[in-house]
């Protein structure tokens, strides 16, 4: 908990089974009173729903490792003359480390586009390519025209990705791998694996929220919940 606080990491705070997600951060870990103090959510109604929730789940990243915990009793408080929330220090936490970031496929029915600016001699061109999947570490994109320089290490700055219901994020992508594909219709396509470079905490948080949104939608479809 202290590591999350000292690193100023943003944390996802979820209620109602993950249907509502708020972004917060740890303000203080009080050993004497066995409490954790966090930023309150924007708006009185949102904070009221959090306080009344039977369980509140939290998820954040520390050194690129997912940290998960929950609380059954959130209370209102004040911290340095501003509204805050507090709960008891969790008795257990999940520290989930993977060799790679968790990747999830993006929707095929409504593809997410990545806008990239290509420069060649005295000419620049803006292109929009479809995402295949996304993780907190990067994305895979399809380059059906094969116009992207696929050399390992090539960087593209000021790329823009519009995440539905989350918003537009601005990222730098570095090409890490490429693969030419032959589709069922016989046409050729190229899949590029790109790594995010120097992500800010706010952009990383937006990507986390979108991945969680996709995961909830996928789980709902699998269980038949609409």
UniProtKB/TrEMBL annotation:
Keyword line: Bacterial flagellum, c-di-GMP, Nucleotide-binding
Chief location bin: other
Residue stretches making up the PilZ domain: 97-212
Keyword Nucleotidyltransferase: no
Domain Type III secretion system flagellar brake protein YcgR PilZN positions: 1-95
Biological process (GO), any one: bacterial-type flagellum-dependent cell motility
Pfam family of the protein (one): PilZN
Subunit structure: Monomer. Interacts with the flagellar basal bodies.
Position of the signal peptide: none
HAMAP family found in the cross-reference section: YcgR
Protein name: Flagellar brake protein YcgR
Entry similarity comment: Belongs to the YcgR family.
One GO cellular component term: bacterial-type flagellum basal body
Location(s), subcellular: Bacterial flagellum basal body
Coiled-coil intervals: none
Role played: Acts as a flagellar brake, regulating swimming and swarming in a bis-(3'-5') cyclic diguanylic acid (c-di-GMP)-dependent manner. Binds 1 c-di-GMP dimer per subunit. Increasing levels of c-di-GMP lead to decreased motility.
Organism for this UniProt entry: Undibacterium terreum
Gene3D superfamilies for the chain: Electron Transport, Fmn-binding Protein, Chain A (2.30.110.10), predicted glycosyltransferase like domains (2.40.10.220)
InterPro entries hit by this protein: PilZ_domain (IPR009875), Split_barrel_FMN-bd (IPR012349), T3SS_YcgR (IPR023787), T3SS_YcgR_PilZN (IPR009926)
Molecular-function GO terms, alphabetical: cyclic-di-GMP binding
Cell inner membrane listed as a keyword: no
């Amino acid at each position: 908990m202290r590591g999350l606080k000292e690193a100023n990491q943003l944390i996802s705070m979820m209620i109602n089974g993950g249907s509502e997600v708020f972004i917060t951060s740890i303000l203080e870990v009080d050993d004497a009173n066995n409490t954790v103090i966090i930023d309150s959510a924007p708006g009185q109604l949102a904070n009221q729903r959090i306080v009344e929730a039977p369980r509140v789940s939290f998820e954040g990243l520390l050194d690129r490792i997912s940290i998960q915990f929950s609380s059954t009793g959130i209370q209102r408080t004040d911290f340095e003359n501003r509204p805050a929330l507090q709960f008891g220090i969790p008795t257990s936490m999940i520290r989930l480390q993977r060799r790679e970031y968790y990747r999830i496929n993006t929707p095929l029915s409504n593809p997410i586009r990545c806008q990239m600016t290509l420069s060649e001699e005295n000419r620049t061109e803006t292109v929009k390519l479809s995402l295949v999947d996304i993780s907190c570490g990067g994305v895979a994109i399809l380059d059906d025209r094969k116009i992207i320089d696929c050399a390992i290490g090539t960087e593209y700055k000021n790329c823009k990705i519009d995440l539905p219901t989350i918003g537009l994020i601005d990222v730098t992508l570095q090409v890490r791998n490429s693969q030419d594909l032959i589709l069922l219709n016989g046409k050729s396509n190229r899949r590029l694996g790109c790594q995010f470079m120097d992500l800010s905490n706010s952009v990383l948080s937006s990507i986390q929220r979108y991945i969680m949104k996709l995961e909830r939608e996928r789980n709902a479809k699998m269980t038949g919940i609409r």
